[in-house]
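Aim 2 progress update. The chain analyzed this quarter is reproduced below.
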Amino acid sequence: MENWIFFVLLAQFIWSFTTMIDKFIISKKHISNPLVYIVINGLTNLAFIFLLLFFNFEPLGLKDFMIALLSSAGFAIGVTLYYKAIQYEEISRITLLYQSTPLFVFALSAIFLSESLSPYHLFGFLLLLCAGIIAAYKQSHNRFVLSKAFYLMIASNIAIAVAYISAKHVFNVTGFWSAVLWLRVTGFVALSVLLIPSVRKDFVQTFKSMKNKIRGLIGFKMLIDSIAFIASDFAILLGPVSLVSALSNAALPLFVFVLAILFTLYFPNIIMEDIHKKSVLVKMLALAFVVAGIIFISI
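Predicted C-alpha cells:
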C-alpha cells in the first residue's frame, strides 16, 4: 500500500470520530450558531505554533501567501456550510454527500496542476458521484426530494475543492512543515467572523454558558483534529490530489456509517440515526457505489 493511502485512511478514521462530536454538539444545541463553532475550531491552529520550535518557517512570496490564504478561506467556508448542513440531515448522509468533492477537485487539478487520470479513475469518480446523489435523496409524502443539506453540501464541496488545490500548490513551493505552518497560520482567517457584532456576542455568550464537560470534549476534538490535519497534509504532499480527495471522501462515510449505527444502538442519547430497513438499504446502496469507486480509482 502506498504511503499516501495510509495517511488518508488515518486522517479519515480520526475525522469519523470528530464528525460524531460535531453532530452531538450541534444537534444538542450546545452550539447553535455554525459561525461560532467555526471560530472555536479555528483556534485549533494555535496548537501548531509549537512546531516553530522544531522546524524552519520558510517565507512565501505574496502570490503563494495569497494562495495559502485562499486554501484556508475555502476550508473555513466549506466547514461552516457543513456545520449548517448537519442541522438538517443525518450525519451518515452528510458524509456521503461529500462524494461530489473529488469531481470538483479533479476539474481544478486538471486546470491548475495539470494532473490527468486514467479512464478507470474517471469511472471511479462517476461511481462516487452516484453515491452522493443516492445519499441526497429522501422520501417525503411518497415522493423523493432533495434535502436542504444537498445544496449546502454542494457549495461546501466546491469550497473544499478550492482548499485542496490551493494546499497542493503550497506543498509544491515550500517544505512540508513550512507548508503545514503556513496553512495553519492562514487558518486564522476563520476568526475574522468575530468582526461581525452578532457573531462576537454569540461567541462570548456560548463560551460563558458552556459546561466544562463540553469544553473538555471540544478540547479533545481539537487535539485529534490536529493529528488528522497533519496526516491529511502528508497525503496531499505524497499523492495525486484528485485521488487523495476521492479516497478521503470514500473512506469517511464508511467509518461514519459504522460509528453512527453503533452509537444509535448503544448510545442513542448521544447520536440517533434512522436505522429502519429502507433507510439502511439506501445507505448501503450508496456505500456499495463508494466501494466500487474505491476499486476503480485503485486500478
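The first strand starts at residue 137 and ends at 140. The CA atoms of residues 43 and 278 lie 40 Å apart. These observations will guide the mutagenesis experiments scheduled for the next reporting period.
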